Amino acid sequence: MIFSWLTQCWGVRLKEPALALPGTGGDCVAAHDIMHVVQILSINDEGALIKVRTVAGEERSVYSSLPELKLMRGMETAVEKFRKNLPPDFESSACHNGNNENYRNGRKIIDNPETVEWVATYQGIEHARGKYLVWAEVDVTQRVKVIFTSVGAYSQCPGAVAAIPHCHRDTFKQYQKMEESGPRQPARETVDGYKLIKHIQDDVYVGDRQIQGAGLSGDDRKVTIKLEARDTDAPSLEREVENLLSFSGEIGFPLVERYGTQDGYRFMVCRLAGPTLEDLLEWCRAFSLKTVFLLAEQLISRVEVIHRRSFIHGGIRPGAFALDTIKALNQVTLVEVAGLITEHPRRNDARYFDLEGLTLMLIYMCRRLAPWEGLQIDLTKTLYEDILRQMEDTRAEVLCEGLPRAFKVCLEYVKFPDHTNEPDYNYLRQLFRSAFDENRLLRDGVFDWIAYKNWNSQQGCSLPVAGITGEVGSKRLSGEDVRRERNAQADLLYQAKEACVSIAKADKADWTAAASAHLELTRRYIDIWDLAQHPEIPTDLRRWPEGHQLQEKVWQIGIEPCLKLLEAGLPHTRNLMTGFLHRTFILLTVFVEKAPQYEEKCARYLLGLSKWGMEHDPHGSWAGVHSRWGESAGDVLEASVPC
After folding, report:
1. At what angle do helices 349-367 and 405-415 cross, to 10 degrees?
2. Distance between CA atoms of 225 and 227, rounded to whole angstroms?
């Protein structure tokens, strides 16, 4: 049971259950959906209430059974932190969950320091449920065991500071400082029609589109909202907005949905990104060669766009890039743009420095679990900045020993460049494309996190399995496998079309259902379109989408009818229109990157989206999208895209 297990592994002794059963504080979750455990909130002999980061990049409070908890990434660290935060008399104090009656019966909750005569003993502190909780014994009319609901409330009591042992005072001061410097809360719970639903970090929130009725589901409703007080000493949000607007329409850069000021705050609204590469490394432990090759192509393209817009990144690292969500799960997106700096017009040095940082990051992602001789540090426990400094001082032969030649060739190209010429980004991309054939890997877009998740769901496992990436990376699909997949996708497409037809025939327009149905239909068209690009698909199936004119139907049946329906419902459908435009933009740019031979056709649709956006969402980034894809598509667009 959990008690004996904790006692054996960490010396924790618990007597009473610390958690109610599912239904009292969190959803049940399977371990293969978890990237890592952030924090253990409560624990008993059946399971635990834990805070986790999911594969989709969200933080959630969930209930986990004991077998699943043991398999989760980061569990050991979370339990160790939990043990350190237990008060000395935890055996008699029931649990950490303030909603549990045993907890309230065991200790009195104190939020008013004026009721306390004297603090007798300080027993511990914990950050839980967004609050800093302090355990102590105090004198009221008699000696009682209590929990203060804040560090501030504890500090105001007579004898509070003196009661803290010297060995704990530095830790207490750190908690006190964190509580005092917590994020400033906005005066309102909504920002320009978006509801703040969860705080992520600093002044960054997950927001929800305020849509009546069913609306778009899941991540289609969610956005990232950044806030900044107008009276801040070091404003940066305006610069971040300007940077992002300059990238409008580029693949792999978030579109700004809204920006402005409200209630003393500047705000910016963008689509919600998925997990960062740093998060995925924590879950996968290291990336296979195949995944690094796939990432390299996209990352080189992102850096090329940054340089083309006359910026330098200067801080390339795994946390600076994230994946998108839903059907864009394999599209790499730049998420750190506030620190971009303007490039000196006559120097190329900084561009090569960016590319050197990118190459070292690619090597690091391969070798995280297999450090090479000459770099004697634990790559899983050392800060990336410290690792990078050591890598920069290590010879290319040492860094790239045992890796495919593409890494060494790329590193030498960027470390010893001809500064009179701009970097050849196509040459660097081709290095890693050629590496697929050289290493007998399939360039099919299947990343490690997809392979792990699929493998785990079939095998009943919950963590990456040694050797799986090599097996999946070289797997070859049979013709029967591909046909079975095509038939399954065709069935889903038919169902999505029937749903749209049914909504169109209804007597009363259901805008929210229409937006959801047409977005699903667009996804299904692109799924089949995408399947036809698989390197091993038979010739007859490769031609199937074109024979059925699926590319044209993406716009004619999937996108345009929904936009017309939402237009008829304005102003009530404003947020639905914005959400639909942004989601379809993401879907189309994902496919442009996967199948560049269809860029002209996709450019027509992206130009069409930008026209709708400029008319009905003028505060967004659509003028930039129109400029970007108007240049790509040429004069044929004006006659091709209705609006």
Report:
1. 150
2. 7
**Would you tell me how many other CB atoms lie within 10 Å of the CB of residue 294?**
25
CB atoms within 10 A of CB 557: 19
Cα-flanking dihedrals φ and ψ of residue 57, to 5°?
95, 5
Residue 555 is given by DSSP the state: I
Q: Is residue 238 assigned to a domain?
A: yes
For residues 175 and 225, membership in a common domain is answered with no
Shared domain check, 634 and 507: yes
What's the burial of 534, exposed, middle or buried (CB within 10 Å: 0-12/13-18/19+)? buried
The pTM of this model reads 0.70
Look at the block and give the residue holding tokens 């940077």: 243
Same domain, 560 and 584: yes
Ordered DSSP codes for 104-137: HHHSEEE--GGG-SEEEEEEEEEEETTEEEEEEE
For residue 347, what are its two tokens?
Answer: 């120097």
At 72, list the tokens. 């989760």
Helix (H, G, I), strand (E, B) or coil at 586: helix
Q: Are residues 335 and 294 in the same domain?
A: yes
Is residue 234 within 8 Å of 535, Cβ to Cβ? no
Three-class HEC string of 288-323: CHHHHHHHHHHHHHHHHHHHHCCEECCCCCHHHEEE
**Closest C-alpha to 351, from 396, 402, 300, 397:** 300
More confident residue, 557 or 282: 557
Amino acid at position 146, single letter: V
- Alpha helix positions (H), 184-320: 237-246, 277-284, 289-308
Residue 23's contacts (CB-CB under 8 Å, 6 or more residues apart) are none
Structure tokens given for 434: 């050629």
Per-residue b or e along 312-340, where b marks 16 or more CB atoms closer than 10 Å to that residue's CB: bbeebbbebbbbbbbbbbbbbbbbbbeeb
Residue 608 has pLDDT above 70, yes or no: yes
Q: Are 246 and 623 in contact (CB under 8 A)?
A: no
The tokens for 285 are 């432990």
Sign of CA dihedral 582, 584, 590, 596: negative
H or E element that contains 42 = strand 34-43
Please determine, for residue 275, whether its predicted confidence score (pLDDT) is greater than 90: no
pLDDT in tens, 557-588: 999 999 999 999 888 888 888 889 988 998 89
Supply 289's token pair: 């060669």
d(CA 612, CA 579): 12
CA distance 227 to 230: 9
Residue 109 contacts residue 37 (beta carbons within 8 Å): no
Q: Are strands 108-110 and 143-148 parallel, antiparallel or unpaired?
A: parallel
User: Which of 271, 286, 304 is the endpoint of a domain?
Assistant: 271
- What is the full DSSP assignment across 337-395? -TT-EEPPTT--HHHHHHHHHHHHHHHHHHHTTSPPTT--S-TTTS-HHHHHHHHHTS-
Name the amino acid, one letter, at 41: L
Same-domain pairing of 538 and 521: yes
Task: Tell whether 201 and 169 lie within a shared domain.
Answer: no
